[in-house]
Amino acid sequence: MSPIATDQIIETVSSLPAKLSSALTMAATATPSSASTLRLPHFAAPLPAHKPYVLESDEGETITLVGSGSIMRYLATAKETDDQYAIVHTRARPDEPVPAHFHARTHDTFLCLRGTMKVWENDQCRILGPGDFASVPPMLGISRERIISPGSWIKMFNFIGEPYTHSPTFPWNEERPFPVPLFIEAIKAGEDVIPVREYGYPEGKTMDETDNTLPQDSSPYFLKADCGPKYFINSQSCSPLTLARNTNNAFALSIIAGIGSKESYPTFRCARVAPEAGPFPSGAQIKLASHSLFRVVEGKVRFMVGTEEETATAGESVMIPAGTGFNYVIASAYARLYVFSGKGGGLEEVFVRVGREGRKGEVVGEVEEPAIAREAVERVVKALGGEIV
Fold this sequence. Notes:
15% of the residues lie in helices and 30% in strands. The chain is built from seven helices and 27 strands. It has helices at residues 6-13, 18-29, 78-81, 155-160, 180-188, 347-354, 374-383, and strands at residues 42-43, 53-55, 62-65, 70-76, 86-92, 101-102, 107-111, 117-121, 124-128, 133-136, 146-149, 161-163, 194-195, 205-206, 221-223, 231-233, 236-242, 252-259, 286-287, 292-298, 300-305, 308-313, 317-320, 326-330, 334-341, 356-357, 387-388. By secondary structure, the protein is an alpha+beta fold. The chain folds into two domains: 53-206, Jelly Rolls (Sandwich); 229-388, Jelly Rolls, CATH 2.60.120. It is globular and about 60 Å long.
């Protein structure tokens, strides 16, 4: 079919009612907005090293683990984080357990996004629901979003998996057996996985409100959704799921929530009035010494990375390499996002060290927070090896 010229479109619509004709003529002759160039690079695979990028929902390098009925999508790998951590988003059928194993050096964490999943940890088993979290340090036997440190361990998945481009969901009709020979090859190649023979698989226990504490060290633990500590700064809250102290200083993961401005959402009583938002004083940018990945769960978040702007929505991820200045504001009435930080911790440490610790059950917007002094934020950011610009 040959292309249709603009003048043909205008001629065709000229006989339509005046308002519709005018609208279509404007659309046909319009040029792309210059604002569209102020975007971060969007990628699928491979991901770029040491550069900011946006990963759209269900994009990224994807593999299926043979015989497991699951897919694994990489949000960040060792290449993008200097081997500090890797983030793997998994979807799977029910009743497809990973063979029991432990790691000598690798720290695994598990965050349930939807559905339920079981995590075995020595003689314990928890049934995780949406928002529940488990931290499994090295040398503990276990049998799915998932953060792994060091990030190079995900090479193990490449041994026993294969590229998957058929669908964003898992292969429901996978009937091949688990590839034991490939698993053995990976072990011989030095991948950090030690099978546990004749593991007893204890019964699963549902998470409850007693699973509510982050330890002071890298001991294993389970954390029920919305039951851990929470810190508030300027109409935003941060709920740490694991801090640097819990991972031998390797990585951190938290949930940040915030509300939009009164100017944009005047009908919401709890909308933000102050011009400052979160830990960014007067719109300044923060440069961190750790690599950070933000994954929006709901709502919209507008990021400014250097001079480039990007609005991320639910399911999208934004990578901020170490040493890159950035800030963000909530661009919807309410938004929530996961924040992954690298070695030494990142933005979550600013909330923990400067913010106000909330009451049990408190949600963002209940209290109009006073502005945080720039000097207080600067001290923490500097202690983390970063700066405010």
